[in-house]
Amino acid sequence: MSDLFAKIRRVFAEYAVDKSLLQVAEVSKLPGFVAEYLMTEFSQMYPSDWQERLREFIRQHYFEASEKEYVKHLLVERRRVSLIDELVVWVDLESGEHKGILQSIGERDVRVPAEIARSYPMTMITGMWGLVELEYSPETAKRDLNGNLLENPVVVTDFKPFQAPVRDPKLLRDARSFFTFDEWLDVLINTIGYNHNVYRDTRRKLVLLSRLLPIVEENLHLAEFGPKATGKTYVFRNVSRYSRIIVGGTISPAALFYNLRTGMPGELAVRDCVVFDEISKVRFPNPDEVVAKLKDFMESSQYERGKQRVTSGASIVMLGNVEVEEREGTYIPVEDLTYLLPKPMRDSALIDRISGVIPGWELPKIGRARYHLSQGYGIALDYFSEVLHELRKESLLGEVGKHVELFGNVTIRDERAVKKIVSAFTKLLFPDLEFDKRELQVVVQYAVELRQRVRDWLHKLSPGEFPREALSFKLRG
To answer: 187-209: per-residue pLDDT in tens?
Structure first.
């Protein structure tokens, strides 16, 4: 065991997890934070043979969405089935009853007792992963006068969430002092499941960790472009249960903003982070309405739909694949970034609202798991995910302003973008707010670069409105 992994085990104790175990076939099917929660639970309950017991538990209770008809068959035959799934609860205003969405059986209106929804309110906000016990009970379902079912014959009878019991950032803050700046970068990289040895220099590590910024900072809107297979969605899928990934396809205003028919808030209202993956393939049924609302939200953190006005701290991330070529030992994109966006989003006003562009083209492709993914210890993801969620509530913009001053033809959006990026990095890299000038210099230089890339993009798109000018900064104190 390396010195770094030994130190992680010593400092984080029961919150240290062997990330290499996530590569076990059965475990790897689950989101990382779910798998790690189960690993921790089973290792404490069955210290001698927990791995085999966990594998068997997952084999018995986890089913892919493609197996939904088989799961329904089991439910009808056995009458009761327990599934590992995400339970999303919504309220039917006409009947006043709670309904559940379960991907494993492809149903959107299973009956959920009010006491379960009351006990786990996060099921009605973001959804929660857990062990869901279902009963096939057509005899208790409502019927019309002709005997036809009026509601789903499936009912949720019990729910055990997979969630960290602790979300206090104090552990993270106290642990930071035991690690150097470079060691802490490696701690975070292993925590999110990557092998730090693959990302050998500080710059690449910062590029990789940039994917955490919109998870830890409210209303920080980023874009990342890079070749296929560089793991652009890996972090969002595995690190935080408060993120939602939307992969291409058509996105309705109801799903994104607010469903006026059901009274259900859209993804932007309830998520920490909404990710548009394969952004070039995203389509809107009413592009003028959606793009206008997106621009309003990205500027003000608010939007309106119908009579509903919503304020949200959600961050937006746009991910896209780009062709690259090697020049002078590094990779650069050979496509105009504008044309990686769907046509309705090729608008300078919208692009200006993006805080920064992450140079994903500098990261290596994810190849063999035993080489690119973590082979040792990191912080338990269920705890880390909850801490990131808690840290979103803290604003460090005032603290950043004490140390950082921007120069050049700086707009309000430039200043806000850079300071938000530095604030997010500060939460991640310096949770105890202890840093030296050299470390802060590295972080701010990179943050300015992310915003500068937006400025250069805008100049290329509209040179008359956005003159070419480099942003610069100095550190106070």
So the answer is: 999 999 999 999 989 999 999 99
